[in-house]
Amino acid sequence: MDSNTIVEKELEIWAKKWNPFDRAYNKNLHGYLHNLRGVKDLRTINGYRIFIDYKTVKLLLDHENTSVLELTEVFPQKREAANVEDKDFPSLARMTRRWPVLANEPHHTELRSLLTAIWRQSELMEAVDTFVEMTVNNIPLNKPFDWIPFSEELPIFVIAQVLGFPLSDKEKLRNWSKGMAWVTEPFANMYDFSEINKEFENFENYLNIHLDKQLQNPSLDCMIGRLCHHVKENKPDWTHEDMVSLLTLIFFSAIETSIIFFGSALLELSKAHHVWEEVCKDPSLAPVLTEELLRMTAPLSYTSRKVNAPIVLEDGTVMNKDEWLFLSFIGANRDPLVFDDPDTLQLRQPNPHLAFGHGSHYCFGSRIARVEITALLKALALKNIRPELVPHQVDFDKGIYFKKLNKLQVVFKSDAQ
Fold first, then answer.
1. Which residues contact 323 (CB under 8 A, 6 or more apart)?
2. Nearest CA to 186 among 356, 19, 362?
3. I need a labelling partner for 261 at 20 to 30 A (CA). Which of 70, 156, 216, 333 fits?
4. Which residues pair with 386 in a beta bridge?
5. Is pLDDT above 80 for 278?
6. pLDDT number for residue 107
7. What is the distance between the alpha carbons of residues 101 and 305, in angstroms, rounded to a whole number?
8. Main-chain dihedrals φ then ψ at residue 353, nearest 5 degrees
9. 412 vs 49: CA distance, rounded Å
10. pLDDT at 189 over 80
11. Whose CA is closest to 17, among 36, 37, 38?
């Protein structure tokens, strides 16, 4: 076999692997995933199984033989790849130990129950309505502006109101949340984790100040106060660090889930004028549009699972104990076997997308992102203004799990004089 044939064979093999560093991946993400549909035993470039079809992703998200990966399980592999001294990042591990998204049973159910106990949906809706009423009239019309900084304001305002943080701290809150987001990235190395750890430490010091005040005199008018009250009454074994960990998850998920969704959602909407015209004629369709935008632009692109006992799929595929799996939300949500014309934005009903996962680990941030974007869409529809994309003014962050926009120049067109 000559050298040219060897190269061609190697390229053919690599073409059948999921590679987020491939130029084609970044140029046309969904087209790239469509080209991988039907590849048997699809693998990532580092050898893990990855699934992009709806049926398998849904099955494995909540399979009895799978579990979520705890952060401490990731450190050994990262250390080996980075060739660094033994580092466990105790602050980072400590602050994520009470995250439901990183917990398995029975702790996961206990944490979800606690979140439900201290959550007030009416409090969230009031904060969202207040922000939308204050700001929607300030959207510049008929001239380009960057949607990303504007859209970041809503989730930061809302979570500050819910947790009881002063709005004067919004810039610090945004920077901390942005830094924490890298903890989810599959190709983040130990050097990245060192920077992430600093963001967690800074936020921990900030949160301790607010938590200490509420521990002295808990207020039921904010979530931190309700957590302090609930822990005192029901969880005497919980430490100060446990409460910091859970509050960090609420803070992080509430901001990042919404910000990522807001940017990608408006990008898709700017390409579908006919859909937006329907919603402007009937603003009650805003919730339907929200679900379709979630299907098209899932805030979290991928997630991971660990196999605890052998799993055999219908096609005979066998997954062995201790395997790590990649599951693609964005692949599943555009599976042509489930969604007709999957790359086209429609006001489709029903819409069984997996944007927020499935089963027991259904994303807590869903109840926040849905309310925020629906309220904003409805307010914009009532004003009958349409978003149009400014060509060549879109810039994505380098994240893989979170496909986040850094810049999105748009023009909100209005015929009103």
1. 48, 49, 306, 307
2. 19
3. 70
4. 413
5. yes
6. 85
7. 11
8. -65, 165
9. 43
10. no
11. 36
Q: Compute the distance between CA of residue 240 and CA of residue 211 in angstroms, rounded to an integer.
A: 8
122 residue type, one letter: S
Q: Which residue has the tokens 């799990």?
A: 401
Q: Which two tokens stand for residue 86?
A: 């033994």
Q: How many residues does the chain have?
A: 417
Residue 184 to residues 96, 144, 300, 327, 338, Cα–Cα distance (Å): 11, 33, 10, 14, 28
Interval 81-97: pLDDT, tens: 555 555 667 677 777 88
Q: Report which residue type is found at 145.
A: F
For 7, the token pair is: 């190269």
Q: How far apart are CA 308 and CA 321, in angstroms?
A: 5
Q: Residue 96, Cα to own-chain centre: how many angstroms? A: 16
pLDDT at 4: 45
